[in-house]
C-alpha cells in the first residue's frame, strides 16, 4: 500500500531532486542513442545483498545481460542507468544523491527489488526512508524479493523501451449477487477439513492443498465405480510414490470416516 | 585446439533465449500473487499474515465498503497469503514480468460491500464473508440445528452480540439474586 504521505512524516520534509524542464525529451534522445550500449552503475542503499546477487546472476553466461549491451561499470560518471537497491537508509540518502548528481544528465534511474520500490519488508523501520523514490526520481520499478535474473532483464528492457510493461493497476468492484463458492459442498465440512489438514501436514501448504483438492474431486465426481476403485485407478497412473503415499493416507482417513470412526 | 572446439560443441549454448522466447519456470515458482476477487471474502487473513504489509484492508464505514489492496512493489513473494486463504482466492502464479514505469501500476484493489448488522443496522463485516460463513454453518446443520438462529447470529455485529449477552446475563443475575 502506498498511503498518501502525511505532512508530519519525516520523508515529507525531504527536498526533492529538481530535474531540468526538457528532461523527458533528453531522456528520449538518450534511449535512442544507447539502445545497444547501456552502462549501469549499481548503488546499494541498505539492501540485504540478495538483489546484488541476482544482478550478478543476470550478467553471468546463463542470462548474459551483456548481449544486450548492458554493462556494469565502476563509476557513476560512466553510467547511463543508475540501479538503486535497498530501502534507502537514513545514512545512505546523501551518498545516493551524490551518485545521482555524479552521473551525467540525462540518466535513467531504476529502482530494484521490493525494498527499492517501496521499502519492502523494512518500510516502517525508523532508520529507512522507504524506497528509492523518496530520494531521487525513479523511471522504472522492478519488484521482487529479489527479482530473478529474468525479471531483471525484463526490467532493463522496459527501462530501455524495448518491451512494454505488462502490469496495470486494476480495480475490482464487487458485483451484485457475487458470492464465494464453497468447494465440494456435498462432502461433510469436518471431513474436508481433516483431509486437507492431513495433506498439508504431509506435503506443505501448496502441494497439500492441490493434493487434497484432487482427492476431494475424485470423491465428488459421480461415477459408477466405487471410490476405492477410482482412487486405485488414479494411483496406477501416478508415478510419484510420495503422492501415492499421501493418497493412501487420505483414503484411510476417508474409509475411517465412512465406517463411522470419525466424529 | 580441436579438443577445445569439441568441448565447445559438446557443451552447446548455455544462455537462455529469454526475452526472445518465454522462460520456462518451475510450476511452483513464486511469482505475482494472483487474486481471484470472485472467491475472495475479504476476511483479511492475508492482510494479517503478510510480513511486509503489502496487502492491506481499508474499511470505509460511511460508504459501507471494504477494499482489499495489494502493492506488488512491497510484496516479498513469500506465499503466506496463499497459505492462510480459507477460500483459495489468492495463489502465487508463475508471472514474474512485473517491472513498471509508474508506481500506481503496482497496485490492485478489490472493493467489497459491507453487510449491515441485523440488530443495529450498522455495516460491520463484508457481505460475502457473512454469506460464506452462513452457508458453511448451514451445510453443517447450523448451531444446535437451528439454521435461522445461526443466520441471525452470524449477521449480528460484535457490539450487539455483547449487548445481548449482557442483557441475558443481567436477567439471569436478577433472578438468582431474588432466590438467594
Protein traits:
heterodimer, A: 263 residues, alpha/beta, Rossmann fold, 2 domains, 5-stranded parallel β-sheet, B: 180 residues, alpha+beta, Alpha-Beta Plaits, 4-stranded antiparallel β-sheet, two-stranded antiparallel sheet
Structural class of chain B: alpha+beta
Unreliable segments of 5+ consecutive residues of chain B:
none
One letter per element, helices H and strands E, the order of chain B comes to HEHEEHEEEHHH
The percent of residues in helical segments of chain A reads 40-55%
Which CATH architecture of the largest domain in chain B would you pick?
2-Layer Sandwich
Q: What is the annotated CATH architecture of the largest domain in chain A?
A: 3-Layer(aba) Sandwich
Largest interface between protein chains, with number of residues from each side: A-B, 59 and 60 residues
Can you describe this structure?
The complex is a heterodimer of chains A (263) and B (180). Chain A has 2 domains: 10-159, Rossmann fold (3-Layer(aba) Sandwich); 189-253, no CATH class. Helices cover 41% and strands 10% of the residues of chain A. Chain A contains 9 helices and 6 strands, in the order αβαββαβαβαβαααα. In chain A, α2 packs across α5 (149-159), α6 (189-203) crosses α7 (205-220) and α6 (189-203) packs antiparallel against α9. Chain B has 2 domains: 25-114, Alpha-Beta Plaits (2-Layer Sandwich); 117-172, no CATH class. In chain B, the strands form 2 sheets. In chain B, strands 2-3-5-6 form a 4-stranded antiparallel beta sheet. Chain B is elongated, with a radius of gyration of 26 Å. At the A-B interface, α4, β5, α5, β6 and α7 of A face β5 and α4 of B. β6 (170-173) of chain A pairs parallel with β5 (107-116) of chain B.
Amino acid at each position: 500500500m502506498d498511503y498518501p504521505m502525511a505532512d508530519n512524516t519525516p520523508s515529507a520534509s525531504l527536498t526533492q531532486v529538481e530535474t531540468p524542464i526538457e528532461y523527458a525529451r533528453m531522456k528520449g534522445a538518450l534511449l535512442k542513442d544507447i539502445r545497444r550500449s547501456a552502462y549501469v552503475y549499481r548503488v546499494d542503499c541498505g539492501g540485504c545483498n540478495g538483489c546484488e546477487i541476482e544482478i550478478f546472476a543476470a550478467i553471468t553466461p546463463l542470462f548474459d545481460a551483456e548481449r544486450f549491451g548492458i554493462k556494469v561499470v565502476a563509476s557513476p560518471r560512466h553510467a547511463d542507468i543508475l540501479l538503486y537497491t535497498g530501502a534507502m537508509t537514513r545514512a545512505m540518502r546523501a551518498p545516493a544523491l551524490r551518485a545521482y548528481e555524479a552521473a551525467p544528465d540525462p540518466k535513467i534511474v531504476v529502482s530494484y527489488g521490493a525494498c527499492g520500490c517501496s521499502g519492502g519488508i523494512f518500510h516502517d523501520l525508523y532508520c529507512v526512508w522507504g524506497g528509492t523514490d523518496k530520494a531521487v526520481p525513479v523511471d522504472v520499478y522492478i519488484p521482487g524479493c529479489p527479482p530473478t535474473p529474468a525479471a531483471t532483464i525484463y526490467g532493463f528492457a522496459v527501462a530501455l523501451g524495448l518491451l512494454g510493461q505488462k502490469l496495470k493497476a486494476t480495480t475490482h468492484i464487487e458485483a451484485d449477487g457475487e458470492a464465494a463458492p464453497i468447494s465440494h459442498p456435498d462432502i461433510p465440512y469436518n471431513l474436508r477439513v481433516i483431509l486437507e489438514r492431513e495433506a498439508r501436514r504431509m506435503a506443505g501448504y501448496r502441494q497439500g492443498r492441490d493434493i487434497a483438492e484432487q482427492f476431494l474431486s475424485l470423491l465428488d465426481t459421480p461415477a459408477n465405480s466405487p471410490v476405492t476403485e477410482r482412487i486405485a485407478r488414479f494411483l496406477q497412473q501416478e508415478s510419484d510414490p510420495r503422492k501415492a503415499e499421501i493418497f493412501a493416507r487420505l483414503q484411510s482417513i476417508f474409509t475411517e470416516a465412512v465406517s463411522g470412526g470419525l466424529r | 585446439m580441436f579438443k577445445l572446439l569439441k568441448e565447445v560443441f559438446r557443451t552447446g549454448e548455455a544462455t537462455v533465449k529469454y526475452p526472445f522466447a518465454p522462460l520456462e519456470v518451475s510450476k511452483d515458482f513464486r511469482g505475482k500473487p494472483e487474486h481471484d476477487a470472485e472467491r475472495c471474502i475479504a476476511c483479511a487473513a492475508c492482510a494479517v499474515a503478510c510480513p511486509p504489509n503489502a496487502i492491506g484492508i481499508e474499511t470505509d464505514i460511511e460508504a459501507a465498503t471494504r477494499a482489499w489492496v495489494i502493492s506488488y512493489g512491497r510484496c516479498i513473494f513469500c506465499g503466506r497469503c496463499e497459505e492462510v486463504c480459507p477460500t483459495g482466492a489468492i495463489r502465487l502464479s508463475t508471472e514474474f514480468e512485473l517491472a513498471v514505469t509508474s508506481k500506481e501500476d503496482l497496485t490492485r484493489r478489490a472493493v467489497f460491500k459491507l453487510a449491515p448488522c441485523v440488530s443495529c443496522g450498522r455495516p460491520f463485516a463484508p457481505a460475502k464473508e457473512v454469506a460464506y460463513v452462513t452457508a458453511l454453518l448451514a451445510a453443517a446443520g447450523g448451531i444446535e440445528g437451528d439454521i435461522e438462529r445461526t443466520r441471525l447470529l452470524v449477521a449480528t455485529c460484535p457490539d450487539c452480540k455483547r449487548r445481548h449477552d449482557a442483557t441475558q446475563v443481567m436477567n439471569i443475575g436478577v433472578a438468582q439474586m431474588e432466590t438467594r
